[in-house]
Amino acid sequence: MSETKALETMIGEEYKYGFTTDVEYEDFPKGINEDVVRLISEKKDEPEWMTEFRLKAYRAWTEMEEPTWFNATYEKPKFDTLQYYSAPKNKPKLNSLDEVDPNIRETYEKLGIPLEEQKMLSGVAVDAVFDSVSIFTTFKEKLAEAGVIFCSISEAVKDHPELVKKYMGSVVPVRDNFYAALNSAVFSDGSFCYVPKDTICPMELSTYFRINNMNSGQFERTLIIAEENSHVSYLEGCTAPMYDEHQLHAAVVELIALDNAEIKYSTIQNWYSGDEEGRGGIYNFVTKRGACRGKNSKISWTQLETGSAVTLKYPSVILQGDNSVGEFFSVAVTNKRQQADTGTKMIHIGKNTKSTIISKGISAGRSDNSYRGQVKISKKADNARNYSQCDSMLIGQTCGAHTFPYIESANPTGKIEHEATTSRVGEDQIFYLQQRGISEDDAISLIVNGFCKEVLKELPMEFAVEANKLLGIKLEGSVG
Amino acid sequence: MRHTNKSFLKQKLNQKETIVLELKNLHAEVEGEGIEILKGVNLKVNKGEIHAIMGPNGSGKSTLAKVVAGHPEYEVTGGDIIYNGESILEMDPDERAHAGVFLAFQYPVEVPGVTNTTLLRESYNTIAASRGREELDPLEFDDYIREKLDLVEMNPDFLERSVNAGFSGGEKKRNEIFQMAVLQPTLSLLDETDSGLDIDALRVVSDGINKLHGEEDAIVLITHYQRLLNYIIPDFVHVMIGGKIVKSGGKELAFELEEKGYDWLESLAKVNGEAK
Ligand SMILES: Nc1ncnc2c1ncn2[C@@H]1O[C@H](COP(=O)(O)OP(=O)(O)OP(=O)(O)O)[C@@H](O)[C@H]1O
Ligand SMILES: [Mg+2]
Q1: What is the ipTM of this complex?
Q2: Each residue of A101-110: pLDDT tens digit?
């Protein structure tokens, strides 16, 4: 009856992005040392200053310890056998879509991301990153008309060195943490976006990250700069094939908002999460941080985290400018053996700064889902405000949910509010909806969507439907 | 009043076609715990009829309703549930709902973040699809449910509120009947819909139920109070004690119960029990 049906759909269509693409890769040595770092820089034809940046980071990394403080147990990545750079063989500088390897093009089609501009969701520009390299960026010209630069970070290093030099590493310093240092040494590609003064970016920007190569790690680097009075909304999506081995993904994202600027950064993360027994899946160890440098600036992180075997991720905002605003809206879903330790940091430095944290954790199967959040109000941050709400929902009896709030306030005028709830999707709730004719899976999906509503409504409209569907698929058959 | 004579007539007609629900020596226990709650229930409900089930607390009335609707918490260990001529024991709760079984819950469940409209549109359309009826788009649906709101005099503000979340006891009960109005079931099991409703609300909701009821559907209502039966006049009244129906009669039985309580029937339950 319902159990077997649910099980069938689960096996049948659970992770529909798990296919691999047949492409030839450039040879690249495994393991890491200074020569490998230099070789990456050479492959990418980088200027000297970039090579130096990498080497400095590499040296810092060799002195750092792998972190162990979070709530997850897993087999450590094997840093000396990993391949740090992986590029499809025929990757000339692409000027037209026709030059993209047809297999890779097809991959994006299958993922529902056609690269032909006329087929795209209107109003969304896409940068497609395949393993380590950016394959194609759409709508470049249209964006250029508005003065917006949207390209791969590799191109930005060459074409806009002054901007990259000024901002890269300014929010996440190379020594920030173990994985950020590693990324700074070996990052391969990623997206770059610059929105000039007084400009509202005319379309949604998005990057689709795809890991294909089994042995390679993916280390992308994203840098978004919003000048005074500008506004940009950016979305990243991530998928990967199903392999029995774990793959490492260690990205760094830096956001900079100047006076009155606003950056909205959304993520729909659906890396392969491993099988029922915890074999395979992506390690998603990511450093994401935004700096509200200017007065009245605003940075919002919205994330829908559904994939990866292990996730460590704390998109943060440094509220430097007076009256600046930081927001974090998160839905993290774990199922099977997934482990997620995610949350945010809000660092209040400027006066009258305000932050809001809404975190919804949903755990099913035998997974573990932790929220870890830090709110820090420094001495000078008069009248800082924070509101945090962390809700956990449990489906079934074998999963776990944990909340770790850290609050530090060095200014007595600060106000911090924290609320947390835990609920369980009850048999009675499901039965009630089933009695109204709704199938068990749809009932769970409805309950979960209701639970996450406040967060999902923050996603750009174009992606809201996708997000709803993803949640449904993710939890299919989770009540047995 | 209007149904009493008709239904007696109907019983003499071709029974097979008019029976909506037939419980045959139904036994059920709490899944996995071996606690038997229904201990051989027999009941026959025809189209166009209203049956009232009364009985002391804990006698198994809600369990009976939930078992008919297919709640996974209970396991049917004996007997059968025949609905429209077929056993529905193997059907999931949603399949039973598609077939026209509706349960108005004694304790309606809250579903935070899901609006009444969202739930009802999903419900209406899945049920419509499974019965080959036309689905309604959001605009058509909006027109459709506004009519139904009037039927139970419900404030339209409730449409955009989360299902039952923060509703008062009486509001929840009214919402159940509103859902019944929208979904137009063939068999409605109304579990203590009257408890929690104030005097005016009771009248309004009862009127609504009477308007919804017709020749083609049947209602089983569970209640503790004879008062409800002044508004919704049953064709039959059954008394459930200790997981069994121990006595059945016409609406006068309700008055008798009101007067005498259940004590005089307890012994009947025992005798019946031993006889088995
Ligand atoms: N899941 C369960 N586990 C254990 N006992 C149960 C369970 N469900 C029902 N029961 C027991 O079965 C008996 C019948 O319960 P039920 O809710 O059907 O009674 P009722 O006739 O509806 O009572 P009331 O008039 O108070 O609503 C009660 O003693 C109740 O405690
Ligand atoms: Mg009851």
Answers
A1: 0.92
A2: 666 666 666 6
